[in-house]
Inverse folding.
């Protein structure tokens, strides 16, 4: 007989991953984060801070129009005042709360609808899946900005109809991605093992599938947030989004657009429309940088 | 083809490839890790060297390095690789490219993925020969058809006009051999060329590969994890482990008197044998089952299988024989079109939904890939604890206590309680899966190819554990496998399946001794044996019969 | 060959079915309008007769399926009904047919989109393929960082930055109002549309380049590409002979996806630069709640979108060797 008695299962060596606590792992990954990701995280933190504490940070009220219209930069108003005499700087700060807040709520709602249905479809893989998938195909055949414009014409542009319409339209994308990643997990033997054990749908969804599709969904949340944020800003810019006097970056760009032609005479005035536009661009850049790094991390772990 | 074009033809016995102290590293886990830790290799003209080792031994990396090729994410950090006077470590890309496809060629494991789906087989066969200017296209194509014929491909005149998806896996593998031979290279690297094939197909491919390599006296490096296969092909065998050489010896000598214990462990499963015990107490019975996926083709035809209590019944067959489908019917994942499954004398409801918790508990399943059979986000405690909680209502301390007992039963200590699947080796993971099945306290465990993804020595450990558990707890196993050595090691009874039908069922001794029905004979005789002359004898025998 | 024709026919049928449901959704939008919209359109002072006449003209007294068939049948022949605007409470009807309102703007829109596509598609494919070939090089990293930044910008940000540059230094005109002048040549029109087209190009190229790069890298990871390298083939030959024949389907998908994106991007850009195009017409109609015009625009944009995706799928089908050479 061969000398295999020295063999013991417990001491069997293999290329296993060293065990580390969650904190240690997070610290190590953060240490190795590239500059772009750090930049993104810091910018996002600043936006969150400004959005949460807007009331305390803004020097003047959101709709306070008690100043002279089109006041220049400086002189009590850092970025001057707008066409009806509201402080631009204050409105930029409130804009963080409104624009970012609404985009955030919309994205969360869209994930609840799309993610939930996507999970159900991936487990069912029968007629519910077919029905949902075909329905989503049809909704996605209409460009979402166009669809949103049409629906806003019909339902009117209140903040809530904006949130609902964008969330429903965007949830089609969330449905697609959730379904496609969840289908890959749903065919795993451990899901079959759970079904053979007799576990119910709820357990399989929450305990077996959801924890394993979180990384791609988190990345997708970042991307969807950017998309929703840009869509809402575009709609507001087109005049179909948030309505005055709510301070909102998209509509502020539109209000100031006319100032651009004075850039040759007064550069600061000409730059005013770029302030809200820049606020929008900076946040999406920041989120994209963080998501890009996160995607790189999670795809690297698979190899 | 004349040998004129092979301007480098040299004397047999002259050194062709010389590797000295080769070191290769791979990038993973954010750092460079050694894969090959200083290996020497000498290959003479016309010689066939078998490179053997288990997963992670670095045999493919070393084989490719023999061509001067490193896969993306790998780098050569030391040593020299001299091919016919050229050092491939320092050679430029252009110099190496001049060798690849003309003097050194490659046969990959997955033929289906290694052929370009957009081009005809014959165009791909002669591509390198023509682009290196070795032969004109029409001459090379004529030669390719001759090669197809000598590799016993069907319709050698026209098969080259087909596209890769239009021929079978075994045929593709032979076309790839023709492709490697087209330029009459000095060296062919075969990288696990038959691993993905069924045994009966493997025999044909091995025979034709060996014939053609002998015909042109080409040197070859043959990489595999199967010692019995390499013994048929190679003159010399080199055993690798963890990127280092264990030993090297002529094939015959290696099989007869291996020096190292590790080498012996490479066929450890073959040393196992179980004495069969007859039994009439049938616990599970499958009667007249027909089954199909969706509205598609019927995959099971009137399957009848009797499983005696406390025994091991093995279902053997090649891919597509319906053995896994039978398991799905028993578990209720695939309700049969007709027929029924009887358990303890009671008919089981055909659908999973119709079965009671207790019925589900009594039949458990263990999967081939332990990796995918465990939720990567759950710890061992959660994985084994769930059936305890679900079926037996255990919780808290009692549950933890029972999990520790189960860990002891599978010969693992309590330090495993908090581990995640990614923190265990392949064999340990499979043991956890066994513990999860045991936790339910089942009567029958269906084992679907549970050892085929594991290294031999680990397989042996798992099989011994399963037998020990059977003796102690009287568990019945339904063992699905394609590996005859495993069948020999653990079964009491054997069921042979082919194309969705049961060819025969009987006790192990009865099935494994002559006379055999035609298919069983083909299947059994195709399993490579630890005898360097096995393939030769088989070819003679089949040649006589034909 | 039959297999491929069958596959294409199936895909075409699916396109028709999709278009049917899309038209149904767009049509039913009008059903959700508040009941008194006749008054809303005609004004508070509208008499009961004019409102009734208006309702009759819309066919609101007919069953919904009948109205749908009439609408979709007319739309198929290019008749999208009459606009809501220009109607007065007095019953005087100065409203114009929708077709008249959108046909000339649509030409401008297609001109702008086409002009952008001609520049953007080859540029993006070139950048994407080269970045994939030299991946992880400095070139790749720079392009990656630049495109990641640029896809994050809303169109109006890019547009206003370009406008600022042009008013300050370039002296380019951002005035496109003359685009409908009868004596404006194609070159004149192109000159007027340089800034909007640049804006769209910047946004589209970034998206398309990233998708092309990902598709090509995915393709280059195939074992048959490694096999071709191990046959000693030159890099160029590996790309042209082994990667390209299998790349048509993913590249077509990328192009179609981005051209469809272009259709949407056009709306915002037209508003920024005040270009009299279909997107601008749609946005103006949204503001004035001119439902027939909005519906017509939505249907046209959706059809273009569906057609583009259909085209990409058909290219994928006809270049798939498995379908071209069935067993």
């Amino acid at each position: 007989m061969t000398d295999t008695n020295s063999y013991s299962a417990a001491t069997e060596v293999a290329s296993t991953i060293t065990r580390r606590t969650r904190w240690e792992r997070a610290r190590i990954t953060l240490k190795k984060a590239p500059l772009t990701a750090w930049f993104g995280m810091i910018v996002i933190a600043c936006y969150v801070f400004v959005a949460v504490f807007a009331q305390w940070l803004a020097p003047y009220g959101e709709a306070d129009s008690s100043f002279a219209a089109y006041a220049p930069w400086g002189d009590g108003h850092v970025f001057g005042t707008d066409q009806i005499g509201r402080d631009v700087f204050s409105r930029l700060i409130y804009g963080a709360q409104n624009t970012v807040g609404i985009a955030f709520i919309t994205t969360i709602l869209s994930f609840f609808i799309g993610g939930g249905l996507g999970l159900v479809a991936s487990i069912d893989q029968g007629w519910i899946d077919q029905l949902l998938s075909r329905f989503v195909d049809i909704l996605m055949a209409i460009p979402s900005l166009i669809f949103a414009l049409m629906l806003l014409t019909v339902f009117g542009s209140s903040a809530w109809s904006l949130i609902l319409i964008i969330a429903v339209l965007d949830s089609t994308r969330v449905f697609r991605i959730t379904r496609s990643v969840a289908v890959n997990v749903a065919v795993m033997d451990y899901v079959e093992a759970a079904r053979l054990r007799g576990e119910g749908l709820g357990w399989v969804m929450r305990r077996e599938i959801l924890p394993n599709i979180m990384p791609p969904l988190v990345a997708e949340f970042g991307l969807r947030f950017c998309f929703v944020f840009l869509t809402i800003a575009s709609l507001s810019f087109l005049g179909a989004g948030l309505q005055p006097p709510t301070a909102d970056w998209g509509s502020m760009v539109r209000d100031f657009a006319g100032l651009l032609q004075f850039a040759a005479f007064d550069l600061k005035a000409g730059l005013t429309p770029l302030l809200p536009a820049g606020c929008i661009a900076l946040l999406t850049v920041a989120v994209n940088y963080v998501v890009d790094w996160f995607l790189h991390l999670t795809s690297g772990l698979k190899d | 083809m004349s040998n004129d074009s092979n301007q480098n033809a040299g004397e047999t016995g002259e050194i062709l490839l010389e590797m000295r102290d080769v070191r290769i590293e791979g990038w993973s886990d954010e750092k460079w890790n050694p894969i090959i830790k200083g290996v020497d290799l000498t290959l003479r003209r016309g010689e066939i060297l078998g490179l053997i080792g288990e997963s992670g031994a670095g045999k493919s990396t070393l084989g490719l390095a023999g061509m001067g090729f490193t896969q993306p994410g790998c780098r050569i950090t030391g040593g020299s690789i001299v091919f016919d006077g050229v050092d491939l470590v320092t050679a430029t890309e252009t110099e190496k490219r001049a060798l690849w496809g003309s003097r050194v060629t490659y046969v990959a494991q997955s033929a289906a993925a290694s052929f370009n789906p957009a081009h005809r087989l014959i165009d791909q066969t002669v591509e390198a020969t023509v682009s290196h200017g070795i032969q004109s296209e029409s001459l090379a194509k004529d030669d390719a058809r001759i090669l197809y014929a000598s590799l016993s491909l069907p319709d050698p005149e026209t098969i080259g006009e087909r596209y890769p998806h239009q021929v079978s896996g075994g045929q593709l593998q032979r076309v790839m051999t023709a492709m490697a031979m087209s330029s009459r290279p000095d060296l062919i690297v075969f990288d696990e060329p038959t691993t993905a094939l069924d045994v009966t197909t493997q025999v044909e491919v091995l025979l034709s590969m060996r014939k053609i390599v002998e015909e042109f006296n080409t040197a070859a490096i043959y990489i595999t994890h199967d010692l019995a296969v390499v013994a048929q092909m190679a003159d010399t065998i080199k055993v690798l482990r963890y990127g280092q050489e264990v030993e090297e010896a002529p094939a015959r000598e290696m099989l007869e008197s291996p020096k190292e214990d590790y080498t012996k462990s490479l066929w450890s499963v073959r040393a196992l044998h179980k004495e069969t015990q007859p039994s009439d107490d049938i616990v599970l019975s499958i009667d007249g089952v027909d089954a199909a996926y969706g509205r598609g083709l019927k995959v099971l035809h009137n399957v009848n299988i009797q499983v005696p209590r406390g025994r091991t019944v093995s279902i053997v067959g090649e891919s597509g024989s319906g053995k896994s489908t039978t398991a799905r019917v028993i578990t209720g994942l695939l309700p049969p079109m007709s027929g029924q499954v009887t358990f303890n004398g009671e008919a089981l409801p055909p659908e999973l939904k119709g079965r009671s918790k207790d019925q589900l508990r009594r039949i458990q399943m263990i999967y081939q890939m332990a990796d995918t059979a465990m939720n990567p986000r759950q710890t061992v405690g959660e994985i084994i604890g769930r059936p305890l909680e679900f079926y037996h209502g255990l919780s808290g301390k009692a549950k933890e206590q029972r999990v520790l007992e189960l860990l002891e039963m599978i010969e693992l200590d309590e330090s495993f309680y908090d581990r995640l699947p990614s923190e265990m080796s392949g064999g340990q993971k499979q043991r956890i899966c066994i513990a999860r099945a045991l936790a339910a306290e089942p009567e029958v465990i269906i084992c679907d190819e549970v050892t085929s993804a594991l290294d031999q020595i680990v397989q042996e450990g798992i099989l011994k554990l399963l037998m020990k558990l059977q003796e102690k707890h009287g568990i019945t196993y339904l063992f699905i496998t394609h590996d005859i050595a495993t069948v020999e090691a653990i079964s009491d009874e054997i069921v042979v399946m082919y194309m969705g039908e049961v060819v025969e069922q009987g006790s192990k001794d009865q099935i494994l001794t002559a006379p055999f029905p035609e298919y069983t004979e083909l299947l059994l005789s195709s399993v490579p044996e630890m005898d360097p002359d096995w393939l030769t004898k088989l070819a003679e025998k089949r040649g006589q019969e034909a | 060959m039959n297999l491929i024709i069958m596959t294409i026919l199936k895909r075409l049928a699916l396109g028709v079915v999709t278009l049917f449901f899309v038209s149904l959704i767009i049509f039913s939008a009008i059903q959700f309008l508040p009941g008194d919209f006749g008054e809303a359109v005609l004004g508070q002072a509208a008499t009961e007769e004019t409102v009734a006449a208006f309702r009759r003209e819309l066919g609101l007294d007919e069953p919904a399926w009948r109205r749908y068939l009439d609408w979709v049948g007319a739309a198929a022949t290019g008749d999208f009904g009459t606009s809501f605007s220009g109607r007065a409470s007095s019953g005087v009807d100065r409203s114009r047919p929708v077709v008249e309102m959108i046909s000339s703007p649509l030409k401008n829109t297609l001109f702008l989109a086409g002009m952008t596509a001609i520049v953007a598609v080859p540029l993006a494919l070139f950048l994407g393929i080269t970045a994939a070939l030299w991946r992880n090089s400095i070139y790749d990293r720079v392009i990656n960082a630049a495109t990641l930044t640029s896809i994050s910008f809303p169109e109006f940000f890019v547009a206003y930055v370009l406008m600022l540059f042009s008013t300050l230094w370039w002296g380019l005109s951002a005035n496109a109002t003359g685009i409908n002048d009868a004596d404006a040549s194609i070159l004149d029109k192109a000159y007027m549309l340089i800034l909007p087209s640049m804006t769209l190009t910047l946004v589209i190229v970034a998206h398309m380049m990233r998708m092309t790069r990902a598709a090509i890298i995915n393709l280059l990871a195939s074992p048959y590409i490694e096999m071709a390298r191990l046959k000693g083939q030159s890099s160029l030959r590996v790309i042209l002979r082994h990667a390209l024949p299998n790349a048509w389907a993913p590249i077509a998908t990328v192009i179609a996806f981005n051209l469809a994106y272009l259709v949407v991007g056009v709306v915002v850009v037209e508003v920024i630069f005040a270009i009299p195009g279909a997107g601008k017409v749609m946005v103006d109609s949204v503001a004035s709640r001119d439902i027939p015009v909005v519906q017509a625009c939505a249907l046209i944009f959706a059809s273009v979108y569906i057609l583009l995706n259909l085209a990409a799928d058909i290219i994928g089908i006809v270049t798939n060797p498995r379908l071209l050479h069935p067993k």
Remarks:
- Chain C touches chain B through 21 residues (CB under 8 Å).
